[in-house]
Amino acid sequence: MSVAKKDYKRITTKSLIEMKENGEKISMLTAYDFTMAKIVDAAGIDVILVGDSASNVMAGHETTLPITLDQMIYHASGVVRAITRALVVVDLPFGSYQSDSKEALRSAIRIMKESGAHAVKMEGGSEIKDSIKKILNAGIPVMGHLGLTPQSIYKFGTYTVRAKEDEEAEKLLEDAKLLETLGCFSIVLEKIPAHLAERVAKSISIPVIGIGAGGGVDGQVLVIHDMLGMNNEFSPRFLRRYLDLYEQMTSAIGQYVSDVKSRDFPNASEQY
């Protein structure tokens, strides 16, 4: 049974665990720059994810794979300078942690030291447990990520729903319990059946945050460009658009072009 919402002046990993215990849902959005992060933080978001989705929405790549550690640190630094309340989690990019636990630790340390972020996020379960353990042993909080893991898109070959079959579903549940045992403070579940996501959330004590994983989890995350309607070409079932910024921005910019061409801008009151 839920209790009265606690007023957190600063969100920490402990705050998120308390939210789960108290039945309070966790809100999470992506941000990649100072200006957007300042707005998101002021609106009361609990967690800001500096996602490797910056590779798609900021740089125009087809996948998340090309973005580098240096680029992630650049984006995260701007976000951290903007926030006063939210917990900032940064994706470890593809190639910075999968092959070698020592390299994983070096990558995580660079993110924490050079950006000022509060935690890192890593995709995978048992196959990256050594990297997770080494990072956690260094005192760096880790958020896990299971289900559809975009850094493995070429292995999957598709962005379709994961873990629909029993074998993969059981593996995902085992991995979630492993991440909890290792010491991860929360897990993102992406694009899996809602009943499985709810089962996972009820099976572990750490918060489970979903994207395309139904309402039975402890919180939700979306890419901010998607939920604000800046990307009008992406319309998965799980996405709710809260604005249509693509239409509003193109209209506003078009009006600016028209005003410049017609000499309406600047007018007399807009000059020195």
Q: Mind explaining what this structure looks like?
A:
With 272 residues, the chain is α/β, with parallel strands linked by helices. The protein contains eleven helices and eight strands. The protein has an eight-stranded parallel β-barrel with strand order 1-2-3-4-5-6-7-8, surrounded by seven helices. Strand 4 (119-123), helix 6 and strand 5 form a beta-alpha-beta unit. Helix 2 crosses helix 4, helix 5 packs across helix 6 and helix 8 packs parallel to helix 9. The protein is globular. The termini are far apart.
Instruction: Give me the secondary-structure category.
Output: alpha/beta
**Averaged pLDDT, please?**
95
Q: How many strand elements?
A: 8
Tell me the span between the first and last alpha carbons: 61 Å
Q: Which residues sit in consecutive blocks of at least 5 with pLDDT less than 50?
A: none
Instruction: Give the overall silhouette.
Output: globular
Sequence of secondary-structure elements: HEHEHHEHEHEHHEHEEHH
Oligomer: single chain
Q: Quick one: biggest sheet?
A: 8 strands, parallel, barrel
| C-alpha Rg (nearest Å) | 20 Å
- How do the strands line up in the largest sheet? 1-2-3-4-5-6-7-8
- Which range best describes the helical content: under 10%, 10-25%, 25-40%, 40-55%, 55-70% or over 70%? 40-55%
List the total number of helices: 11
Question: Percent of residues in beta strands?
Answer: 5-15%
